[in-house]
């Protein structure tokens, strides 16, 4: 870039008369006790409704501080209690000012880091951060052994360096690290800032002398005001001129903690009084777009990233397919075709159980998405979203798109093993309908557990949500407990359960087939065996008709008259108010009908003799 005359955009940060005021609880109200937590939450809600005062008192954090943070220099921020607020305020104003790099540079840097290609720039950044020795190692977590804690810190720093942010505001990056690791991280940042033209402000708590010597400028805060800001080499001389002498054998950082308010140098005041020369401003330092590239480029980049993660987690998908093969072998031996019949309603209920096992298997198979989604959200996605790497939709769509072929493959393995072995309807059209319904259930399960992972954000919370969702879907799905047995306060779980709709759809697809088209008892009903099973278990009218649509009904008296006309039996019209559901018995020879539970016989005399009594 130097040979062709391309300069990286640089940023100079200026802040004048910066004030930060806040409200906080004073005294015992501010202690993190169980009682204070709930009392403060309730009072905060009532205060937002302007019912009671909040009980908080105003406090001042920063008092009219001013300063300049120059590019290509690394600044150390020292102080007590106010460093985080200052860094947060500067970072917020930087984001509001749309301080981002050139889009072309942004695209180039992110593309080479996502696509997994080993290029010169990729190797260069890895070497700067000291990550070239672990470039092909998993980051790891509490369950997976990965890189060390210091290397994880440098990975986070690397994500910030290749992102759109050119001004870095870091607070307590050395927490939990030893002095050697802290020195390596700060040294990596120093090289990056000097070479790539960045701007960095880092807050550390009493760093080691060798780490302190890596910084170019020092900002010392005390009591909410700037005590000193300037080059590191002039700190000791400036403090001596103000009457503060560092004791012999004592580190400069330790003795500077006892300083109170000291006026800023005249050089800094002169620089602030001079307006910023906009002619020296890089044209690519500021941008008006939210993201560095277009929507399609963002989508393609995230698809490449998701595909890379899927290849790295290929063991999970191979294990899921092996699990499906084992479960399919168990299911097809339990529901073997030689022992499965199509003769009675009880046989249909057994087939309903076989369908339910297939649906539940794919539901549980999607549970693996919860852990993988939580890991991605926890370690990278939140940080990348906050830094405007990409919008949420550009991250969610590739995950859904690339999981569709996986669902087709998993469902194909299951249905090839079980469909014809169990003895479902052999019609090829119904075979593919069954297959499509399983794919939809698999997609539903994957999307559901990804949603619960996004809501929970933590593994323990997400597992709790996932277990509860599985319990509701299984118990209230309409198979383990019928709809009539579900309590009224739990009926909502039946109607919102996707498993119920999937089970009904699979059952309708199966029992309306040719294998279940025979009429078992023509005298009782002309319905086929499949329709009788649907009426018995699923509520056939509800599955075949949209809610709210009118239904044609026929009275029981009319049905009895039609039956009597076919068989030659006599029928009695019941008087008004009589329960038509009470059973009626007929005396075959006398042509008279007797109502059960009644001691008096009633009937009518026909003007002809009924024939064909033997039919």
UniProtKB/TrEMBL annotation:
One Pfam family per UniProt: ABC2_membrane
The answer to keyword Transmembrane helix applying to this record is: yes
Name the segments for region: Disordered: 576-597
Q: Which UniProt keywords apply?
A: Membrane, Transmembrane, Transmembrane helix
Annotated membrane-spanning segments are 315-336, 348-368, 400-422, 434-453, 459-481
GO cellular component, alphabetical, reads: membrane
Q: Which domain of life is it from?
A: Eukaryota
Domain (ABC transporter) spans 13-248
Q: What is the name of this protein?
A: ABC transporter domain-containing protein
Organism per entry: Dioscorea zingiberensis
Please spell out the taxonomic lineage of the organism that makes this protein: Eukaryota, Viridiplantae, Streptophyta, Embryophyta, Tracheophyta
């Amino acid at each position: 870039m130097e040979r062709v005359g391309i300069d990286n955009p640089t940023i100079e940060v200026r802040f004048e008369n910066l004030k930060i005021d806040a409200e906080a609880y004073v005294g015992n109200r501010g202690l993190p006790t169980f009682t204070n937590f709930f009392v403060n939450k309730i009072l905060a809600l009532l205060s937002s409704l302007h019912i009671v005062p909040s009980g908080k008192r105003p406090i001042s954090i920063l008092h009219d501080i001013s300063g300049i943070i120059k590019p290509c220099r690394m600044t150390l921020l020292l102080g007590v209690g106010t460093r985080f607020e200052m860094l947060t305020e500067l970072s917020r104003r930087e984001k509001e000012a749309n301080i981002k790099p050139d889009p072309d540079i942004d695209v180039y840097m992110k593309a080479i880091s996502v696509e997994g290609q080993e290029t010169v720039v990729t190797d260069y950044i890895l070497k700067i951060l000291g990550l070239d020795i672990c470039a092909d190692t998993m980051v790891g977590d509490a369950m997976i052994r990965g890189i060390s804690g210091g290397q994880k810190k440098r990975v986070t720093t690397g994500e910030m360096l290749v992102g759109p942010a050119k001004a870095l505001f870091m607070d307590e990056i050395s927490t939990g690290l030893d002095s050697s690791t802290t020195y390596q991280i700060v040294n990596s940042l120093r090289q990056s800032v000097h070479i790539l033209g960045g701007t960095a402000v880092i807050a550390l708590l009493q760093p080691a002398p060798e780490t302190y010597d890596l910084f170019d400028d020092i900002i010392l805060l005390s009591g909410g005001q700037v005590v000193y800001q300037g080059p590191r080499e002039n700190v000791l001389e400036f403090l001596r001129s103000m009457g503060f002498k560092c004791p012999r054998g004592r580190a400069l950082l330790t003795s500077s903690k006892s300083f109170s308010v000291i006026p800023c140098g005249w050089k800094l005041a002169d620089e602030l009084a001079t307006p910023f020369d906009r002619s020296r401003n890089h044209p690519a330092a500021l941008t008006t777009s939210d993201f560095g590239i277009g929507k399609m480029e963002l989508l393609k980049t995230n698809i490449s990233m998701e595909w890379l993660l899927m290849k790295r987690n290929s063991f999970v998908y191979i294990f899921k397919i092996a699990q499906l093969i084992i479960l399919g072998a168990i299911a097809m031996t339990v529901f073997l075709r030689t022992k499965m019949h199509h003769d009675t309603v009880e046989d249909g209920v057994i087939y309903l159980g076989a369908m339910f096992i297939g649906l539940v298997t794919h539901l549980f198979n999607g549970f693996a998405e919860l852990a993988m989604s939580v890991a991605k959200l926890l370690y990278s996605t939140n940080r990348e979203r906050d830094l405007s790497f990409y919008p949420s939709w550009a991250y969610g769509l590739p995950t859904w798109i690339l999981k569709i072929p996986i669902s087709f493959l998993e469902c194909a393995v299951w249905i090839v093993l079980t469909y014809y072995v169990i003895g479902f309807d052999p019609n090829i059209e119904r075979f593919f309908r069954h297959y499509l319904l399983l794919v939809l259930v698999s997609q539903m399960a994957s999307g559901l557990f990804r949603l619960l992972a996004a809501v929970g954000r933590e593994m323990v919370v997400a597992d709790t949500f996932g277990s509860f969702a599985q319990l509701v879907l299984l118990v209230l799905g309409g198979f383990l407990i019928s709809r009539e047995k579900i309590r009224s306060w739990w009926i909502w779980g039946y109607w919102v359960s996707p498993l119920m709709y999937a089970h009904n759809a699979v059952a309708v697809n199966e029992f309306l087939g040719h294998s279940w088209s025979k009429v078992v008892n023509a005298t009782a009903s002309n319905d086929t065996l499949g329709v009788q099973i649907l009426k018995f278990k699923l509520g056939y009218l509800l599955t075949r008709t949209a809610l709210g649509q009118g239904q044609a009904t026929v009275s029981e008296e009319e049905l009895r008259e039609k039956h009597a006309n076919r068989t030659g039996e006599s029928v009695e019209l019941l008087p008004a108010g009589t329960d038509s559901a009470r059973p009626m018995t007929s005396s075959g020879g006398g042509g008279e009908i007797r109502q059960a539970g009644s001691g008096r016989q009633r009937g009518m005399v026909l003007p002809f003799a009924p024939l064909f009594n033997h039919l």
